[in-house]
């Protein structure tokens, strides 16, 4: 038996978009395409339309298409965004879009950036959990209302999309800087009472490329698609590192 519910109508065309897309590697160029402008159209829809209808060689990344994985991130009119959650109507300027790969990362090809150095900096920031064994082998119990748990919980929704990294001017000036995502991860770990190496995490972010290199401009917080506040996390790291130095723990 067929449902009597109304079927969704096809999206309405609103005209055309002029889309300038980065092609090639770091020494590439912008190439212009004309794309139909439709209602409720996302930037990822635009890129997909170009790849399917105009140029099948266009290279870009995507996976979930629903704002969960972050793999579709790229520069949209100069700002880093998840393209699957960015509606054309909000960002197009006079019917024009400019799309480039994420800033501050090497270009693989077209709109795909090489994420290697981004994740290498998570490693350099000692962004891995060091478990604390309990004496009786039981589970470690954590008070969800403790200040430490709340501080850790505020940053754990980072999915490693590198939007904050692309937004960060300090990364542009200082390629050794660990970056907001790696430092945010370190902040969650030093506030996790289950972690066995708080001093190790602090030592990893205390050098010239660590938390004190941050200029507190707040671009990472402004652009984070998940609404996280890496700026606050980095400020917390600065205070924690200073306290550890004064106590002689570093």
UniProtKB/TrEMBL annotation:
Q: Which domain of life is it from?
A: Bacteria
Which pathway does this polypeptide act in?
Carbohydrate metabolism; tricarboxylic acid cycle; fumarate from succinate (bacterial route): step 1/1
Look up the record and name the cofactor or cofactors this protein needs: [3Fe-4S] cluster; [4Fe-4S] cluster; [2Fe-2S] cluster
Kindly give the Pfam families that the UniProt entry links to this protein.
Answer: Fer2_3, Fer4_17
Which SUPFAM superfamilies does this chain map to? 2Fe-2S ferredoxin-like, alpha-helical ferredoxin
What are the UniProt keywords, alphabetically?
4Fe-4S, Iron, Iron-sulfur, Metal-binding, Oxidoreductase
Cite the EC number.
1.3.5.1
The residues covered by the 2Fe-2S ferredoxin-type domain are: 17-103
Subunit structure comment from the entry:
Part of an enzyme complex containing four subunits: a flavoprotein, an iron-sulfur, cytochrome b-556, and a hydrophobic anchor protein.
Family note:
Belongs to the succinate dehydrogenase/fumarate reductase iron-sulfur protein family.
Q: What is this protein called?
A: Succinate dehydrogenase iron-sulfur subunit
Where does this protein come from, organism-wise?
Azospirillum oleiclasticum
């Amino acid at each position: 038996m067929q449902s009597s519910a109304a079927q969704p109508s096809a999206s309405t065309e609103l005209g055309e978009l002029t889309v300038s897309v980065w092609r090639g590697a770091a020494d590439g160029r912008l190439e212009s395409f004309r794309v139909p402008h439709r209602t409720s159209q996302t930037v990822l829809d635009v890129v997909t339309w170009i790849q399917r209808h105009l140029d099948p060689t266009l290279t870009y990344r995507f996976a979930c298409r629903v704002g969960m994985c972050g793999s579709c991130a790229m520069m949209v009119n100069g700002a880093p965004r998840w393209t699957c959650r960015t509606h054309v109507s909000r960002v197009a300027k006079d019917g024009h879009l400019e799309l480039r790969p994420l800033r501050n990362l090497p270009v693989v090809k077209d709109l795909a950036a090489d994420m290697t150095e981004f994740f290498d900096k998570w490693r350099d920031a000692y962004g891995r959990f060091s478990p604390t064994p309990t004496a009786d082998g039981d589970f470690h119990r954590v008070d969800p209302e403790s200040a430490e748990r709340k501080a850790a919980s505020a940053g754990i929704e980072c999915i490693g999309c590198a939007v904050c990294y692309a937004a960060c001017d300090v990364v542009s000036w200082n390629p050794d800087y660990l970056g907001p995502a790696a430092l945010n991860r370190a902040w969650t770990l030093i506030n996790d009472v289950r972690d066995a190496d708080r001093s190790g995490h602090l030592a990893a972010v205390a050098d010239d490329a660590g938390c004190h290199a941050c200029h507190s401009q707040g671009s990472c917080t402004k652009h984070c698609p998940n609404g996280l506040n890496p700026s606050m996390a980095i400020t917390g790291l600065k205070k924690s590192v200073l306290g550890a130095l004064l106590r002689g723990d570093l």
